[in-house]
Design a protein that fits this description.
homodimer, about 375 residues, alpha/beta, 8-stranded mixed β-sheet, 14 helices, 8 strands, about 10% strand
Chain lengths: ~375, ~375
């Protein structure tokens, strides 16, 4: 069946094929973990919002789009400063096509979404340059484990994505604290990946926490507390709890490699039941290296949704082919799950048509 | 298969049998909707807590017991002033035996549980004698519908219970506002059902709201706002949304008849995919009349878990046979779902053994 899917295998292909076989025809629950961090407001770091202060509204708006097909907390949909729409548009379209249910989990946001969401007792994160960025990490992990385990008993398997502006910088922070060489390897929403700015921010955070590269390799909770973000304890806990009961597809780009490194330090046995699902734009990105990070951490497979917007009638979607935005809100994993659920009956072209329909509707085009 | 289950049929037996056939062998998600109301603190009205102020802690403690097998917000477990343990002990034991997953939904509580829970934007309720008891009713219903629809896509079906001290009085309030004759018919946790006090409280609430018996029969949202409680919009919305996708077992006693009346006024088509599940102690109660209320509202079947604690070695459990507590936290529905999932492999005697084990453990006996 998998041969007919528009899904590529980037790392550990045999395990990736086995994972695709396991989820074929199955009915997952898609979970989007939302959070915000002041780190995302550092000028030049993130494009997940029309301007830095707007990033507080991006995760709740993404969550509303996923559940309602429209945003309530903002007009229209979240866009980059260049006008590129949120990848939640991709996730929403794929999930809708395959009739996949959605649940929102709040890791810690400043602006609460106007929809039902699961609370884990987390707060929005501080700037990691403080060296003290996330509260309540162990409690959020424990609550997320319980939630993940229960949800994975109800659904056939879990697909877990994220929406947090600035998340690749905090990913670099945690990977560095855990001793994984990720400098110059994390992805970006921006046209020019600001690697040196990200490294400076992480360096300042580690220094403020009186830590250095690899010094927290045995203390993942402290790594998150010092230089991480509030999406991390929620997502890591969900995966650990979920993987006890069912397969888990971690839907995201290089941020998911930080979650893999955290899980390896917290509960390595969970990694046996896990795959990462991302987009071709991340897998083929020349300014980042997801495979290079994942292969340092573990042998979890990386599945790649082979999307192509080159033939779209909309310039705002074509531009994804130039490497802007690339991924987020579980876009790649949502497409993989939709294709796996319906086998050859949902193709990348059908997903693009659905995205175009929603894009035109939401942007008021035509 | 149903013939072998310890389940009786109280109302609309042919529909009840069809419902049992439909859920046989299926894997549900159990949802407990928690809320609090100042109404529950009126002296003499509720026994869901060792004293009136303690009722704020009963729903979060029940929720913790369901998810963790122990309470965090209080020592031990919630008990009545007579020392009878919470019916959450029954639900927890049945769900654990059948490995049924649990999700907590917060309709509006004063004390938040120390576990993951879904937030719907609701607040704890005011005393219904104010005539203005619940905020944000329509928004909570809308959010609960979305949640119920998504969860019912993930699980085979939903079982939805409640924990709210004082809930039978607010049930009488809403039933009266909707024009259903329920005076003297709602159940009670107490040894002597305080029917006249409940009727006085409801009368005062309707008068304060400038309403009377039946005057809100076309306005269910206002009925909740004036003389209801915050569990109601959450539970009604969950059932309406859930029933679009899968069967829904409403797990509770006479309070569920108020939810049926609300659904009939809001979205009557949802009632086609619904049953009520309760305990024999409610169905056979001489001081209340669930059948008499349900039959006024609709032809939804009422399934009855044929539990019997008469043979228990623990006096605190035997006392359920005298008609104290009777039901709550979805106890009856949880037992029906556990028996239906595993067919004859889970009996009422096995459930009692598991309850006794947990009771001894949690109460520190032996």
């Amino acid at each position: 069946m998998k041969q007919s899917l528009d899904v590529l295998l980037a790392c550990n292909a045999p395990k990736g094929e086995a994972f695709l076989d396991e989820i074929a025809g199955k009915n997952p629950l898609f979970i989007c973990t939302i959070a915000t961090t002041e780190t995302g407001k550092i000028p030049g770091l993130s494009a997940a919002g029309a301007n830095p202060d707007f990033t507080d509204f991006t995760p709740p708006a993404d969550a509303e789009l996923l559940l309602l097909g429209r945003c309530k907390s903002i007009q229209g949909v979240p866009i980059t400063p260049d006008g590129i729409p949120t990848p939640a548009l991709i996730s929403t379209s794929a999930l809708h096509l395959a009739d996949i249910p959605v649940l929102i989990v709040n890791g810690g946001v400043k602006v609460k979404p106007q929809i039902p969401f699961v609370d884990l007792g987390g707060n929005s994160g501080r700037d990691i340059r403080s060296g003290d960025s996330v509260d309540n990490v162990d409690e959020v992990i424990e609550r997320a484990k319980i939630l993940g385990e229960n949800l994975a008993k109800a659904a056939d398997y879990l697909v877990i994505g994220e929406s947090i502006p600035g998340g690749t910088t905090t990913a670099l922070g945690v990977l560095s604290a855990l001793g994984v060489n990720a400098a110059g390897k994390v992805s970006s929403t921006l046209p020019e990946n600001p690697h040196s700015l990200k490294s400076e921010v992480v360096k300042a955070g580690l220094a403020a926490a009186k830590e250095k590269f690899g010094s927290l390799s045995k203390n993942p909770i402290k790594a998150i507390s010092c230089v991480g973000d509030p999406m991390m304890p929620a997502l890591a806990g969900l995966v650990i709890g979920g993987a006890r009961q069912a397969p888990v597809l971690m839907a995201g780009g290089t941020q998911m490699s930080a979650i893999l490194a955290l899980i390896k330090a917290l509960n390595p046995e969970a990694l046996c039941n896990v795959a990462v699902g991302t987009t071709r734009w991340v897998a083929n990105d020349k300014s980042s290296d997801i495979k290079g990070i994942v292969n340092q951490v573990c042998d979890v497979p990386v599945l790649v949704a082979d999307l192509n917007f080159g033939g779209s009638e909309f310039p705002g979607l074509q531009i994804y082919e130039t490497g802007l935005v690339k991924e987020g809100v579980g876009a790649g994993g949502a497409c993989i799950a939709a294709m796996a659920k319906r086998g050859g009956a949902i193709t990348r072209d059908m997903i693009l048509k659905e995205i175009e329909r929603n894009y035109a509707l939401l942007m008021g085009i035509k």
